[in-house]
Every structure is written in C-alpha cells, then in structure tokens.
Amino acid sequence: MSQKPFLRIDNIRKRFGPIVASDGVSLEIQEGEIHSLLGENGAGKSVLMSMICGMVRPDEGEIIYKGQSVRFNSPREAIRQHIGMVHQHFMLVPNLTVAENYILGQGSALRVINDMDEVHAKIRELSDRYALDVRPDALIEDLSVGEQQRVEILKTLFHGIDLLILDEPTAVLTPQETDRLLALMRDLVKDGKTVVFISHKLDEVMRVSDRISVMRDGRVVNTVNVADTDARGLARMMVGRDVGMELARNPANPGPLVLSVENLTCRSETGLPAVRGVSLHVRAGEIVGIAGVSGNGQTELSLALSGLLPVDGGRVVLNGKDITGLDPVRINASGFSHIPEDRHKHGIVMSMSLSENTVLQRYDQPPFAARGMLNRRMISEHTRDLIKRFRIKSRDEDQRIGDLSGGNQQKLVVARELARNPDFILVNQLARGIDIGAMEFVMEEMLKQRDSGRAILLISTELEELFAICDRILVMFHGEILGELPPDRTRLDELGLLMAGKTEQPALAG
Amino acid sequence: MDDMMFLTFLATLVGAAWRLATPLIFASIGEVFSERAGVLNIGLEGTMLVGAFCGFATAFATDSVLLGLLTGVLGGMLFGLVFAFFTITIKADQIVVGAALNLLGMGLTAFLFRTYYVSTGKGIEIAQPVHIPWLSDLPFLGEAFFQQNLIVYSTILVAILATLVLYRTSFGLTLRAVGEHPKAVDVAGRNVAAYRYGAVLVGTGLAGLGGAFLTLGHSNQFVEGITSGRGFIVLAVVVFARWSPIGAFFVSLLFGLFYALQLMLQAQASIVVPYQVLQALPYIMTIITLVVVRGKGAAPGKLGQPYEMR
C-alpha cells in the first residue's frame, strides 16, 4: 500500500477496427514482484503489454512508469527505458548469430562492427550468471525453441532491463524447461528486476507469482495476492462464473461394440516402432480415454486408426467391418469421425473459408453437390447452421478460417465431425489451444454425443479433460496399453505411476 | 607447337571470360544486396539496358567514359526507384513490377536509340586497356589477367567492398536481417522500408553500371537488346552463388567463361557444331544451374514478400 507503484496503467483503451482490445484497463505493478496476467485467449493480455513495450500505441489512457508519464512510439524507446519483452513469436533473425541479433539496430547504421569480442564476452558473462547456456556465436536457426527463448530473455538482459514482460513463454516449453524458466524468473526478481508473466495456465501462475491480475474482455477484473486465492477462484474470475470441471453427466449406458482394435502395431514416420500391440474396444454410448505423457505412441495410434499411417499388424474393426489399412476416404465413409491432434495439418485448410472447410470430406456428395457442381447455397446454409449451434465467433461463413482464433477453429472441426453423424468419434486433444469457456462447451457436446449412443475414443495428455468426461481411462506407455482405471481423481497416484510405466501391482493377486 | 597454341588459346579465353563476366559481376553483386533485403528484382534486364543506353548517350555527347559510367549508374537507380516505389511503398507484386520494368526498359531504350542515334552510326570512345609495366608483358599470364581496362579491374574492388559492407557493417547486418525477419528489424528500431529502398538502389545502381560497361567498356555501340538476357542470367548467378558477393564474383566468371568459350569456338573453323548451339551455351548453363542448385534453403526467408508496418 505504501509502496509507490513501479508501473501504473491508467484507463487504457485500444481498438482495432470494430474490435475493442483494451476497454479501460487499469493495473499497478510493484517493483520487484512477479506479476502474472491471467486470462483466456483474446482477453487482451498481449495487446496491453504490447502497449507498454512500445509495439502498439494506446488510443486513450496513461502509462506511468517509474513515476513519470511515458508514451513510447517504438519498442526502441521502451528498451531505452529498460523495458524488455519476450514475444510469443520470437524476434530473432534465424540466419544471424546470437551476438549479431543482439547488436541489430544498435549504433549508427554506417558503423563498422569491430567490437564483437566485447559483445561475446558480455553475453557469456550474462549467460553464466543466470545459467542460461547461451553461446554467442550460435546461429539462431540451429537452436531449439527452448534455447531460442533463453536467447530472447538474455537479449533483454543484454540491453538492460528493469521490467521484463514474458508473453505466454511456457506454451512452447517442455515441463522441464518450464521449471527452469520459472526458477529463472525468481532469480531475476532476486536481482531487483520486475517480471510480468502472461499466461493462461493456472498451475504455473499459482506456482510462481506474487500477485495475479485476471483479465477478461479487455479489462482487469481483479488483482489478488497469490496467497489469498486458489486455482478454482482464479478460473472463476477468468470466465466470469464458476467452472467446475465437474460437468453434470449421467452414468454411462454402454451398448453394443462399435470399435475393436486387436493387437495393432505401426511405426512412426521416422520408421521406429511406435504402437506395439494395442488392443482396446469402445462400445456405443461410452467415452474411453487414453492417458499418457505425449510421445508414447498416441499420435501414431490415432493416425493409424484414421488411415493416415500404414498399419504393420493387427486389426481395426468398426461396426463389424474390417477397416484396417483402408485409405482415409473409405474410413471416413464408414461412420468414422476424426478430431485430429494437429488441426492445421490434418483438420482444416487455413487459406479456405469456413464453408469450404465444413464440406472438406463431403463436397462431392449430395446435398452439397449435384452433377459435379457445388451447391453453394446448401453449403453456406449448413455452415451458418453450425456457426450458430457451436457459437463460432466469425464474421460470416465466407471468412477465411485462418483468421479465426485457435479455439474457434477447433470448434468448427468439432462441429463438422459431429455433423457427419458418425458412429465412432476419435478425438486427439479435444481442447488444445482453446480457452476454458469453449473447452467446457465442447466437452458438454461430447457428453451429449455419448448419451445419444455414439462411441468416443479420447486421446489426451490433459488429465482434467479425461477425468471430466471419460467413463474408462486407459494408460498408454511406450506404445502399449498398460492398464485401465475408472475416472476417479482419488486414484491419481496410480494413474501417474502407470503413465510413468510402472506396472507392479502387488495387491492384484487373488 | 600445339602446346603453345593451346596456352595462347587459354590465355585469350581467360582474358575474354573476365571481360564478358564484368557486367554479370556488377549486376549480380547488386542483386545479392537486393535479395538479401527480401526484394527479388527480376527487372534487371530492363535496368541494365537503361544503364547501357544512358552510358552510351552520355559518352556520345561528352566523349567521357567516366561520365558515361556515372549516368549509367544513375539511370539504373532511377529505374530502381520506380521499382522500389511500387514494390515497397505500394506493395505491388515484385514479379509483376519487375516484368513490367523489363518491357519498359527494352521499349524505352529501343525507342530513344532509334529516334536519336541509329542514323548516326557513330561509335563512342571506350575505356582502353591499361598497360601495367612488366605484368602486362608476361607471356600468357599477361594476356589472361593484365590487359584489361580499369572497369574490369574494379570488379575485384566491388566484390571485396560488397563483402565488407554486408558482413562487417551495421548496415549490412541490418540488411541481412531485413530479408529474413523484417519484424525483428522493425522492433529493433530500424526502418525496414528505408533499408529495402537502399538495397534496391544499390542493386539497380550496380546493374546500371553493368549495363554501361557493355557500351563503354566492351562494344563502343548501343544495340537494341544489347544485354541479350544477361539480366536474367544474373538471377541464376545469385542463386548459384548462394547470395554471397564473393560467390557472385566467381559464378559470374564461370558464366563469363561460357560466353568466351562460345565466341572462341565459333571462330574455330574446325568446329562443326552449328553456331546457334554454341551461342545457347550460357543460357543452357543457366537452366542447368537453376535445376541443380534449386531450393537448398539458403534463400532469404522473406524473399519477395512485402512487409506490413505496424
């Protein structure tokens, strides 16, 4: 209370055409704290921080930094005031070295570069101090995403920072790299720097922050001390209502066998064994989950089932018909729907409209086509109907799907696959990249599908997703199904052990 | 005696190759700058023609080779300014504008030449080989390397200078970044459009110089379409050279060698291949180059793409 705010944002407004990105945001950041900015996709977090680092100019409002009103016309001016930002899309030039990237735009344009040794030394010193493992002469294009992120963070340190803004930094990191990043944030704060951490992952925010501001619809709805809140409370603030991941659901009423997989084996695209003898079955009216740490053959399993990867051995039977190794067109026509893991690669065509994406599998069939001609009116009508039913936020059905947010793209994929009236739905990562509100919606939709007698196989790395809607959970490890559990949160330890490949079950005897 | 003849042949060949490579060297080093900044200028054929014509017209009026070269460069840059305005400021498609400028360059120079000069039939003073004491008189080596005019020698200087600018100055660093990740340059506080204008002007200025060499250092006359496709060959040279100025220098020499070879083989009465086949040699090599060296990932990442400022 007594502390004068380090950074004060006062009633900032920003519009992009008809879209209001910041609707009177006010926020105070204290010196030396880790302040998290939490919110769903599109809540206005990134735009707000882009205004602080000079990338975007606000329409109205005031930014007071270190007691002075500031107005940055370019990122350069913000950097001079020791404000650094690491963007989601890195600002690193791939064909230059780390050191060259750091001195880009520094000094006079006609300057002869003759101080590279000093630059390298300074980078090494900073890298050692924060254990960042950055080599000054490494080419950016040779570095992994995690390494590039450390290069970006070191860049801000190189230019000198008092305030570091990290925009969704953990989205591209492995769990180990995430731990390392969170530790680094703590180290930076120890050295007197202030960190703003933009995220929509509740657990990370809870782990690292001092204070948390929750944004929704272009405003800050609340700022709380981390000690005074919990994940559930934060989630409620994010979406503006209570989200129990406890969805209301009826007990499953499994009917006849729809899909059975026997001893399926296949190799990954690199030719290594990926699925090693998987057997499972899914009945009408139930949702079967497959849990597991990613990279244990789930991707290959779903590709093999949907005909996108050759099968080496085993059988896949759908509704009594052997569909093993058929091409995707024929599998699709057998009552099989697929909501893929990588929607950009297997789900939609980014440069095409919503309408065109809606009929990707059926453009040549009535009612969408007759005598070799597309029935545009029918396609539009059908798409408009899906947009309305699934509350897809778009201008109209002719908008390019690439212009939609990831969540709305996913909703269209889900809508399209369900509209085909499948008997079996294969889902790999139902809620990838979509926010909590939309997540809840698609999950409820899945439950409705189950209750109407469809068989669903949900492959996911998100345990919450699995617990919320599955009737049985299988655990996949190293290309095999290691065991089956009911969706019971109290048995999380057991699940964790299975996911780590531990199968010893002493109590099973008898 | 056959050995002596062969050595003489070789010496003449190398000397001619360097001379014939000179316009390619200037233009390709220029295009390296342009493409490194992300601007693919296929309008070089037209630009070189303008350079050739400006150089000729100026030397015609003033009898000065130096002034001719200078106007050649300026003519090229003027053309480059038009290209830059449409592709960078207006963000028109680079291929379309480049093609348009080729047609404009061909038509404009042909029109002006026919209107004002064709009837005079008069040639111009051109740059003469400089005699370097002792070196020029060396047997074989002298003819191969030391009997050129100053413009030819200056290609070495241009290649070295271009390398230093591109790799050792802040300007060059930023230029390389502009073609790869313009947004990063923008965020670092440099004006992407200004750098692209600069790169295009360097590129077209050098292309103009290359064109001017054809009339002022080589043929003493302007002929319609005197560049005969060199502006397109340059595009292949840049790919083969993997966007490096030194590479452009040597690849140009290689193409110069093909030009020289076809000229000299034509002169050999004993060769029975139709001369049209020999004439096609440099162009055939261009096609082979583009097929073989294509798509090795060395191209600037944002080549040909306009940049949207914030």
UniProtKB/TrEMBL annotation, chain A:
<dbReference type="InterPro" id="IPR003439">
    <property type="entry name" value="ABC_transporter-like_ATP-bd"/>
</dbReference>
<keyword id="KW-0813">Transport</keyword>
<feature type="domain" description="ABC transporter">
    <location>
        <begin position="259"/>
        <end position="503"/>
    </location>
</feature>
<dbReference type="GO" id="GO:0005524">
    <property type="term" value="F:ATP binding"/>
</dbReference>
<keyword id="KW-0067">ATP-binding</keyword>
<keyword id="KW-0762">Sugar transport</keyword>
<dbReference type="InterPro" id="IPR027417">
    <property type="entry name" value="P-loop_NTPase"/>
</dbReference>
<dbReference type="GO" id="GO:0016887">
    <property type="term" value="F:ATP hydrolysis activity"/>
</dbReference>
<keyword id="KW-1003">Cell membrane</keyword>
<comment type="similarity">
    <text>Belongs to the ABC transporter superfamily.</text>
</comment>
<dbReference type="InterPro" id="IPR050107">
    <property type="entry name" value="ABC_carbohydrate_import_ATPase"/>
</dbReference>
<feature type="domain" description="ABC transporter">
    <location>
        <begin position="7"/>
        <end position="242"/>
    </location>
</feature>
<dbReference type="Pfam" id="PF00005">
    <property type="entry name" value="ABC_tran"/>
</dbReference>
<keyword id="KW-0547">Nucleotide-binding</keyword>
<keyword id="KW-0472">Membrane</keyword>
<dbReference type="InterPro" id="IPR003593">
    <property type="entry name" value="AAA+_ATPase"/>
</dbReference>
<keyword id="KW-0677">Repeat</keyword>
<dbReference type="InterPro" id="IPR017871">
    <property type="entry name" value="ABC_transporter-like_CS"/>
</dbReference>
<keyword id="KW-1278">Translocase</keyword>
<dbReference type="GO" id="GO:0005886">
    <property type="term" value="C:plasma membrane"/>
</dbReference>
<protein>
    <submittedName>
        <fullName>ATP-binding cassette domain-containing protein</fullName>
    </submittedName>
</protein>
Automatic annotation (TrEMBL), chain B:
<keyword id="KW-1003">Cell membrane</keyword>
<feature type="transmembrane region" description="Helical">
    <location>
        <begin position="95"/>
        <end position="113"/>
    </location>
</feature>
<feature type="transmembrane region" description="Helical">
    <location>
        <begin position="6"/>
        <end position="27"/>
    </location>
</feature>
<dbReference type="InterPro" id="IPR001851">
    <property type="entry name" value="ABC_transp_permease"/>
</dbReference>
<dbReference type="Pfam" id="PF02653">
    <property type="entry name" value="BPD_transp_2"/>
</dbReference>
<keyword id="KW-0812">Transmembrane</keyword>
<feature type="transmembrane region" description="Helical">
    <location>
        <begin position="66"/>
        <end position="88"/>
    </location>
</feature>
<dbReference type="GO" id="GO:0005886">
    <property type="term" value="C:plasma membrane"/>
</dbReference>
<feature type="transmembrane region" description="Helical">
    <location>
        <begin position="150"/>
        <end position="167"/>
    </location>
</feature>
<feature type="transmembrane region" description="Helical">
    <location>
        <begin position="273"/>
        <end position="293"/>
    </location>
</feature>
<keyword id="KW-1133">Transmembrane helix</keyword>
<protein>
    <submittedName>
        <fullName>ABC transporter permease</fullName>
    </submittedName>
</protein>
<keyword id="KW-0472">Membrane</keyword>
<feature type="transmembrane region" description="Helical">
    <location>
        <begin position="39"/>
        <end position="60"/>
    </location>
</feature>
<feature type="transmembrane region" description="Helical">
    <location>
        <begin position="197"/>
        <end position="216"/>
    </location>
</feature>
<dbReference type="GO" id="GO:0022857">
    <property type="term" value="F:transmembrane transporter activity"/>
</dbReference>
